[in-house]
Amino acid sequence: MLGYSIRRLLAAIPTLLLLIAASFVLIQVAPGGPFTSERPLPPQVLANIEARYGLDQPMWKQFWDYLYNIVFHFDFGPSFKFKDRDVNDIIAQGFPISLTYGFLSFLAATSVGVTLGVAAAIRHNTWIDYFAVSLGIAAQALPNFIMGPILILVFTLYLGWLPGGGWNGGAWPYLIMPVIALSTSYMGSIARITRSSMLEVLNSNYIRTARAKGIPERQIIWKHAMKPTLLPVVSYLGPVFVYVLTGSVFVDIYFSTGGLGQAYVGSALSRDYSVLLGVTILYGGLTVLVNLITDLAYAWFDPKIRY
Amino acid sequence: MFGSSKKTIELAEAVNEQAVVGRSLWRDAYDRFTSNKAAMVCVATLGCIVLFTLAGPFFAVWDNETIDWTAMGDVRGLGAPSVESGHFFGVDDLGRDLYSRVIQATTTSLLVGLIGAAMALIVGTLYGIVAGYLGGRIDGLMMRFVDILLAIPSTLVIILLLVVAGRSFIMLFVALGAVSWLSMARIVRGQTLTLKNRDFIEAARAAGVGEFTIMIRHILPNLLGVVIVYASLLVPEMILAESFISFLGLGISEPYTSLGALIAEGAGTMAYGTLWQLLFPLFFYVTIIITMFFIGDGLRDALDPKDR
Amino acid sequence: MKHIRNSALATLVATTMLASPVLAAGTHPTTGEPLADDQTFTYRVLDEHSSVDPQVVEDVTGAEVVRDLFEGLMNQDEDGNLVPGVATGFTTNDDKTVYTFTLRDNAKWSNGDPVVAGDFVYAWQRAVDPELSSPYAWYMEITSIENAAKIIAGDAPITDLGVKAIDDRTLEITLSAPLPYFATMTTHSTLFPAPRSVIEAHGADWTKPENIVSNGAYVLTEHLPNERSVRERNPMYWDNENTIIDKVVALVINDENVALTRYMAGELDRTEVPAGQFPRLKEEHPEEAISFPRLCNYYYTFNLSNDGPEQFKDVRVRKALAMAVDRKIIVENVLAGGQPEAYSFTPAAVANFEPPASEMASITQAERDAKAKELLAEAGYGPDNPLKFSMIYNTSESHKKIAVAMSQMWKQKLGVEAELGNMEWKVFLETRGNQDFELARGAWCGDYNEASTFLDLLTTPSGYNDGKFSSAEIDSLMTQARTASETSDLYTRVEAIIAQEQPVIPIYHYAGVYMLDSDVGNWPVNNVEQNWYSKNLYKIAE
Question: What domains are there in chain B, each with its CATH number?
């Protein structure tokens, strides 16, 4: 297992390098430079700025300098839009926020989703099943961004229970609505996958054998059925985690949490190349890491898989 | 004489008249699907919606871009849904008829879903078959390429593509297709790997059938089950992704719109007494997504007998 | 030598000398209103600001913060008049090319250091320094300070800048051309002072809350990008006794509807009113929904460059399009915020400006439509040859609404087929700046209360003349206006030429449309530039 992990991590390096290169190229092709502004800069000032940010150098040199700074100095460069912050600052400030409510959403979606799915499967074809399925489908079908204004209207204006936005260092009243908004649709899909997976497991031969042997139902479910049920769920969770992070832009927009999602989309729209590249690499690296963890977890759930 | 009794003649005729209709796998799948009540109801519903988009414009009093100046002045009062004013679904915040706009938006969203999924399907399937069948280093390289692309967050790729190449209908399909063919390719490749070692493929090769023909004539049909199921699950995903893009302001240009854009607009004016602006597009959107879910589930149950 | 006689100034100085220490939680010294215990003002901003470095900031949100944190030579009062800031007054020579400002002796930085003339010299040199590459360096150019343009272009050292500290309390500025309104330009952030020692110690990080040192009524205590920024009372400020608000919180809320919801829930004291909602809100909350004129215009500009669209080269086409726009509907139905219709490029609210009598404004819309049809037919367009073109605007809900309304008006009245396109801000600016458009939206907020800040846009050498409109007569009139003592007539003539040539379609002039909590006192509704200072506000006890 350790050998496998190390091999995977090593294999990730060329992947990341190519990812950086691909993003770099894509971004250079996009129209609009980082210094377009309402008041056109005099050519000399523009030349100065470009020199300062190294934009006047040949592409390969820019790329090489960039790579060098990342690998040896962990420095992602200055932001083109914000004069008093560089990319490291922006990421260091936004990432913990996105990670916090992202992770909590992930936990919420997984725990509620799995519970719902298992309950539905165990009580197949009863009202619990129909309720859970309907809930899951409704949650999944709603466009996630709509949760923002609805939650704020209900909880801040009509009920007055929760603050309408902000982060406040992650105090729990500020976490509730973002987490609900972000986790809802994944809760639905996780519930459905769990349910169908468990139904399949419960109908399989070895479970039937276990029942025939007289093992109590509770033991069957927890000891024998759970692990194989969660197998497909686990492989789904990897991408879910990344979606939660990258899809969090609407949470940042509606709840003003200051997370990375907004910095990410904002930098794409305002051509802040360095921030865009930095966050892409961060997310890319995270995806690779999460995929690895998922695969390892997979092995724990399915004893037949050995690396 | 032997074989010349009346009974024998009758039997012989019965046998000759009709060849036994074989039950193919597709037939089985079709039967299973049609007996799935939930799926059939959803097919009917989706059919109704498509019918609505086709026939609806004949009943429309207003088109989708003309502003009703009087309604614009008092959206809350005069802009509410009513049959007399010809605004069956009310008006949007600019005084344009929501009925026609919803029809146009539904058409757009359906097209985006279907064409986007189709593009992902075609590209992904071809890529996956080639990679899986050829195997070895080529497969490794092709899949490594896919893995790298998968590591780039899809939102970024979509945004960048739309921003680089400009916004148009075509670009939207291309951008959405560009990020979704990847997982399709992986699944198809996996299935191809399983299939290519089967005996019947071995037999075909022994018979001298060319590699390419094997891929198209023997492997592809056996993949179709998985591919169809996955594609049907892709459609709602495409529609969801498109709604997110519209939310970011990168979707279709005015005066055309999509359900995502209408919902985002409606969500903004929820508290101002114009709830219809949200409810009508939301209803169509959610209905389409839910029906596609059930149809996808039904297809999977029908085509993959292992999965019950 | 002329002196500014300002009795209000004398009174203010006298009151400060008498220095009554505590003003919060008591009654307001002038109006006698009871003051709330919690003097915190919370308001909404649309977007994260670009910077709080006075020589670097380029957006309105940032400028609002900088105006509280720093103080320049002069300030503006609630009516937009000049009042002393760090300077107690100034004198000029006869031809207005040399300004001498006298600084007060009790102005301090938040770390206790005195504010001296050298701080202004350092700051202004920084503003033109190609090293810093400030996006607002062009502002220094239009102040006409000697050698500013040369230094920015890199042809002279920053020490050549025409500003000198005669001594710690006297600042002498030499202009390369006479500018009667130079003093009003010092209210803008680019001309604020800067703390040399702090900047040299921390470099680009000097604006972080833990490092920043400022000389205004407030210091920056918290800054969480995309979430909030907080500024609190600066006890070192020379006029601190008169500051009532203790804390100002700016919350970043992108979505205007969510902002309104949160305002209704009591989390904000001020927010913008979403387009079209003002009449309803005015009815439901008459004390809180306010609207007042602002110094910005909103227009669409034709691409009149040589490779521009053929259709627009015909002035009849331009006039027809301008006439057929029903500004009343846009202003009353789409925006519904009390914005005035615009028939001139410069807002009528600008000081010393008289818009010319406009033919368009004096007839009814029906008559305008008729004339428009006539003109368009004369130019050769009609049902069998419809006028076609594309129009672009930057992505925003209200810009979209206006663009759609305009295109519909043109379609219904003139059979015009206008194709709409929106793009994000940066791309929009680049596209427009490269004359890569046919008809594009534009808006301009005046940097100072004088018509030239608008009219300069339509002169040939202007860097913002994206439509590339060129009129020799306007160019000469504007050059004259820079040195003339009476400019009003000249500006009116320029507007008359604009009305004739119609290089732009003015739509409306801005109004500040806000929900302002009724417990906020002394909001400067009469200051058309909306240069508001938190130190002049207060919260009334409920």
Answer: 28-307 (1.10.3720.10)
Q: How far apart are CA B169 and CA B274, in angstroms?
A: 29
C203: left (phi > 0), else alpha (psi -120 to 50), else beta? left
Q: Evaluate whether C53 touches C198 at the Cβ level (below 8 Å).
A: no
Region of C71 on the Ramachandran plot (φ > 0 left; ψ -120 to 50 alpha; else beta): beta
Per-residue model confidence (pLDDT) at position C445: 87
Phi, psi of C120 (to 5 degrees): -70, -40
Q: C297, C473 in Cβ contact below 8 A?
A: no
**Smallest Cα–Cα separation from C90: which of C161, C2, C163?**
C2
- CATH number assigned to the domain comprising residue A126: 1.10.3720.10
**Ramachandran angles phi, psi of C52, nearest 5°:** -115, 15
Helix (H, G, I), strand (E, B) or coil at C438: coil
CB A145 within 8 A of CB A182: no
Bridge partners, residue C228, by sequence? C224, C251
Rounded to the nearest integer, the mean pLDDT of chain B is 83
Q: What is the pLDDT of residue C1?
A: 40
Q: Taking CB atoms and an 8 Å cutoff, what residues of chain C touch B270?
A: 257
Looking at residue C452, its amino acid is S
| Range with the poorest average pLDDT among B219-223, B253-257, C17-21 | C17-21
Q: Is residue A178, in this structure, part of any structural domain at all?
A: yes
Using CB atoms, pick whichever of A83, A254, A263 lies closest to residue C226: A263
Nearest chain A CA: its distance from B148 CA (Å): 6
Residue of B nearest to A150 (CA): B267
Q: Region A269-298: what's the mean pLDDT?
A: 79
- In 3D, which of C333, C270, B262 has the Cα closest to residue B270? B262
Q: What letter would DSSP give residue A152?
A: I
The side-by-side arrangement of strands in the sheet containing C40-45 is C218-224, C228-233, C247-252, C40-45, C270-272, C504-516, C289-302, C439-445, C388-394, C417-423
C-alpha gyration radius of chain B = 26
Among A65-69, B73-77, B277-281, the least confident range? A65-69
Residue A75 lies in a domain: no
Signed CA dihedral, C212, C217, C220, C225: sign only: negative
Q: Is B275 on the interface with A (CB under 8 A)?
A: no
The pair of structure tokens assigned to A217 is: 């139902």
Q: Are B268 and B261 in contact (CB under 8 A)?
A: no
Instruction: Classify residue A189: in a domain, yes or no.
Output: yes
- Amino acid present at B166: G
- Pick the range with the lowest mean pLDDT from A13-27, C100-114, C167-181, C294-308: A13-27
Q: Is B43 on the interface with A (CB under 8 A)?
A: no
Instruction: Report yes or no on A161 lying in a domain.
Output: yes
What is the ipTM, given to two decimal places? Answer: 0.82
Please list every residue in chain B whose beta carbon sits closer than 8 Å to the beta carbon of residue A278: none
Question: Which residues in chain A touch residue C255, judged by CB atoms under 8 angstroms apart?
Answer: 148-149, 253-254
Q: Give partners of C (≥3 CB pairs < 8 A).
A: A, B
SS3 (DSSP) at C493: helix
Residue C22, pLDDT > 50, answer no
A146/B263 touch (CB, cutoff 8 Å), yes or no: yes
Which residues are CB-contacts of C117 (< 8 A; sequence separation ≥ 6)?
Answer: C101, C103, C165, C166, C167, C168, C169, C170, C171
| H/E element, C519 | none
Render C204-239 in DSSP notation, one character per residue: GGGGSTTT----SSEEEEEEETTTEEEEEE-TTSTT
For chain A, what is the domain count?
A: 1
Mean pLDDT (whole number) for B115-126: 88
Domain that holds residue A228: 87-301
Contact C404 B67 (CB under 8 A): yes
More confident residue, C171 or A8: C171
> Virtual CA dihedral for C526, C529, C533, C538, nearest 10 degrees?
30
Contact C427 A40 (CB under 8 A): no
